[in-house]
Amino acid sequence: xxxxxxxxxxxxxGSASQTNRITVSExxxxxxxxxxxxxxxxxxxxxxxxxGISSGSLDGVVGSQTRAALKAFxxxxxxTETGVADAVTKARLQLTQPPLTNYLVTSNDLxxxxxxxxxxxxxxxQSGLDYESILELVAERGHAHPALIKRLNPTVDWTNxxxxxxxxxxxxxxxxxxxKAAFVxxxxxxxxxxxxxxxxxxIAHFPCSIAARVEKRPVGELAVMVVAPxxxxxxxxxxxxxxxxxxxxxxxxxxxxxxxxxxxxxWIGLDRPGYGxxxxxxxxxxxxxxxxxxxxxxxxxxxxxxxxxxTGTPVRxxx
Length: 319
Description:
With 319 residues, the protein is an alpha+beta fold. 22% of the residues lie in helices and 19% in strands. It folds into 2 domains: 156 residues, L,D-transpeptidase catalytic domain-like (Beta Barrel); 71 residues, Roll (Membrane-bound Lytic Murein Transglycosylase D, Chain A). Strands 6-5-4-13-7-10-11-12 form an 8-stranded mixed β-sheet, sandwiched between helices. Strand 10 and strand 11 form a beta hairpin. The chain is globular.
């Protein structure tokens, strides 16, 4: 995000998103015997996530983000960095709990759903920018691609869900933070963000979207200046010269908080005006599309990073 300053709880600037379709093809297994090594790509991704190493939205598909996550884990474990889930790596990625669990849809879940306006002006007039569907809600809670959630629940009618319906979802949770990050490292070429402790041990690894334009990628030493959960967003038309609507509006707009807010559920402002690390309303696109200038994470990763950093935490950006 570039083009404005940040003040709590309002964030100025923005990130662009594009559509990227993913096909989930690998079957998902469950087993009652634990601990055991992961049996397939989905379970490898899940086991990595339980260690604070994200391969992006859980989808059961081997891609660049899963390989990068495996390399990060292998480096932390002192294994050969192949990016392949070989037998030795799987043996270190023991599953101690079932990979799937049940999620009960509640009346509160249904009550928070609302359509998302397709215009900036419309978004600014909404009471909140919450989830549009139960599918979107449970996918984010399960750190999963919506296609995986559909595949886990093949008989569900997603257009007519009622309270009391049980859904199968990934049984995923990040480890409770034991220490704050001593520094954050962003690799532009690899499109990854990593947090390390004071002994340079890897705490967390996430896919990260970066600026589309090279001149808007701030290489060098930065620092966290502000941490804001569930922020508002200030739409600045000057940041979106390509938008006909922005040119027509010609004024700033305040968009309310919510997971479908342009910066998602978290904002970590950096000491360069207009730049920050934030969430996104489209987590499955992180690392696959580019932004206007900020560093974009899946909402669940941005929320976890909020727990690891504080004002003054160094952020190093390398090519």
